[in-house]
Amino acid sequence: MSEIVFDAVRHAFGEREVLRGIDLRITERRVGIIGSNGSGKSTLARTINGLLAPNSGTVTVDGVDAAKKGAQVRKKVGFVFTDPDTQIVMPTVAEDLAFSLRRSGLSKQDVAERVQDILVRFRLDGHAEHPAHLLSGGQKQLLAIGAVLIRRPEVVVADEPTTLLDLRNARVVADALDSIDQQVIVVTHQLALLDSFERVIVIDDGLVAFDGSPADAVPAYRELVM
Ligand SMILES: Nc1ncnc2c1ncn2[C@@H]1O[C@H](COP(=O)(O)OP(=O)(O)OP(=O)(O)O)[C@@H](O)[C@H]1O
Fold it and tell me: Ranges for the ABC transporter domain (predicted)?
């Protein structure tokens, strides 16, 4: 597993301090981040692969500073957004997957093999030549996850990947995330997703309010919002 270290991380948007001093060392394979709306979870998640550089403090992935060496860290850490439409860029499902490998230096044959592998794995093989925008919400999110996994990152950070989905599709996406070998860090409001996780971090008002097992974190979060 990669070692992700937050050291005194602070960030403000204008006057509003959103991260107020985060210290964490993450080495577990399945980690959840939960907390109220606006508590700073997405901001925190975005610092992991340098999508956002904090005002102060550092986030490192295996010792590499994500803010300073974003491109290097992004090879290792893939990011899945809440809304798959923001990630889907090419007309067809197969083309969209291949697009993720455009600068990989892989041969056409290798790209085709990886695309096929993801299509089969996420049961999208019947849709390879279909327009991506015609997929169901759940299939779109699977495609977005596939487009991240096809680059074979070591870590996948997902920011509320099931929020826009109905119960069934949310289950499909949760199962997909559960099935992958990589280290996964998920920001979520869907607490059931966390049952099998090793560690759950509760963020409240820009600080770590609780850090422990899902069995302990969920009641701690409930108590916080009561
Ligand atoms: N780019 C931005 N510019 C200004 N303010 C922002 C920006 N991004 C986030 N914020 C503000 O920072 C605060 C924390 O946002 P963040 O998205 O990190 O919270 P969150 O815990 O993920 O919330 P939610 O559960 O609602 O997704 C919010 O008040 C939000 O409005």
Answer: 4-224
